[in-house]
Every structure is written in structure tokens, then in C-alpha cells.
Amino acid sequence: MRLLSFLGLMLLPLYANAMDLQFDAEVSPGLRDQVLGDFRSIELISGERASSLHQEIFGPVSGSTYLRWFSDRVSYFGLSDCGSPSSAVACVDPQVKRKIWVTKNYTEINHPQIARVMTLFHEARHTEDQNGNWPHALCSIFFGEKSIWTGQSLRLHAACDRTPYGSYASAAVMLHNISKFCTECSSKLRQDADLYSRDQAKRVSRRKARLRIRDDFQE
Ligand SMILES: [Zn+2]
Asked: Which pTM was predicted?
């Protein structure tokens, strides 16, 4: 009995941080719990099928696939202003491997759970140094979309993508597949995933890449 309760105590923190994510000391317990809770919310996702881009980037629509994909890329989580306190939501530093930081725009602006997950997966894609960290392109001076997170204009900001494989596109493909194919998700989660995936897909500015995403969304 004593052994069981000891094991129970040992298993609890293991389950709580199945991601094995290491949090910096300044990350509050509340934020840490929120992040781990967000991952737990996607753990049970299961999809009847996946689009071809999703299959190529992530594999099947499945919580365990997402958690493995993320843990393969990220081990450390910190807080920063990312050099742009007014507009940045999260960032990576290519010199610091396997680490992502979130800003006050992440912690203090209220967004749906799947939108927070999307941001973390966006940053995880940026950790891929074998792919040059998928750098963003400048949005044109005519770009009319605003940040869904901060409401700021994105004109002439490095907040667009030219490829269907970059951080905006891959996160959009992930959420779009969840919105369409997840059989376990609540309608609220699917609606949020649809809203944010369509928004992030607009950040793909090169015509050929945009058409690839459009076709993928129709699969
Ligand atoms: Zn980015």
C-alpha cells in the first residue's frame, strides 16, 4: 500500500508533464499549468483522416503524433519580450536550441486554448535549424490583415510566409485538419480551430503557396 501511494506520487508529476518540457524559473506555476493543460487538451485528438500537407508535415491527425512532433523539437520554455514587446507573441532564438519563449501578448491577452497551442506549434516549427528556421517574409505595404492576437497592422512586418511549409502555414494546416477531421473535439474547439487556421493561412503571401494551402484546405 505504501509502495502504491509512493508510486502514485511519483507518477503524478510524470503525467502532468508528459512533454518533459523544462520551464524557466520565472515562468509562474499558473502559466506552467496552463501550458501543460493545453497540451493535455490536444492529447486525445483523433482524426478520421488528414490532408496531404498535414500528412507530410505532421503525420496523421492524432494527439500522440502532435505531442511527439512538439517534443522532438522543443525542450525548454521561457518568458521574454522577444525584442518587440508591443507586437511579438512568442519567439525562438536560432542560437539557443530547442527553446521557445512567450511574451506578455501570449500570457495577458485572452485567446482560445487551441490558439495558444497553435502559437506553440508555430514556434516549434521555427526551431528547425535544418530548414533555416523557416524565416518569415515581409508582408507587403498593401497587406490588409491585422494580427488576430494583438490587432496590429502587419504591413512591412516580417509576419508573412512564402512557403506552404513555414510556421504560419504548418500551424494553419494543423488547425484546419483538427477543425475538419477531429472526431473527439468539442464543437467550440473545432470552431476556434477553423477561425484561427483561416486567419493564419492569410499570412501566406506568395500566390503559388497560397493556392497549395487552398487546395489542401479543400481535401
Ligand atoms: Zn514566426
From this structure: 0.90
